Amino acid sequence: MPETSIILATYNNLYETTIPCMDSIFQHTENEDYEVIVVDNNSSDGTSTYLTERARREPRLRCVLNTVNRGFAGGNNDGIRVASGSVLVLLN
């Protein structure tokens, strides 16, 4: 069980924000005891497909794929529900 859960809610900003943010986390986080949870709020830009494929290669990546846009607060709450860490980090 990871100590820290990093949660990122996203909607239609795969290339502008989501990928660069995930890349930065995975490249610069020295402590290995974490998970990254990305909550896709029903994006139409291919986010869910990208996240599903990347999660197969990144053991620390977990995805929540919403069928409706639940907004920033709802997306964060969805990520919190599946988080395993005792420390939660919500990214905006």
Explain the overall architecture.
- This protein is α/β, with parallel strands linked by helices.
- It has a single domain (4-91), classed as Spore Coat Polysaccharide Biosynthesis Protein SpsA, Chain A (Alpha-Beta Complex), CATH 3.90.550.10.
- The protein is 41% helix and 26% strand.
- It has helices at 14-28, 47-57, 71-82; strands spanning 4-10, 34-40, 61-65, 87-91.
- A 4-stranded parallel sheet has the order 3-2-1-4, sandwiched between helices.
- Helix 2 links the parallel strand 2 (34-40) and strand 3.
- The longest helix has 15 residues, at 14-28.
- The radius of gyration is 12 Å and the shape is globular.
CATH topology: Spore Coat Polysaccharide Biosynthesis Protein SpsA, Chain A
CATH architecture: Alpha-Beta Complex
Which segments are poorly predicted (pLDDT under 50) over 5 or more consecutive residues?
A: none
CATH superfamily: Spore Coat Polysaccharide Biosynthesis Protein SpsA, Chain A
Q: Write down the Rg.
A: 12 Å
Average pLDDT works out at 97
Q: Work out the helicity level.
A: 40-55%
Number of domains: 1
Terminal CA distance: 24 Å
Q: Please tell me what the overall shape is.
A: globular
Q: What's the total number of strands? A: 4
- The main sheet orders its strands as 3-2-1-4
SSE order, one letter for each helix or strand: EHEHEHE
Q: What is the makeup of the main sheet?
A: 4 strands, parallel
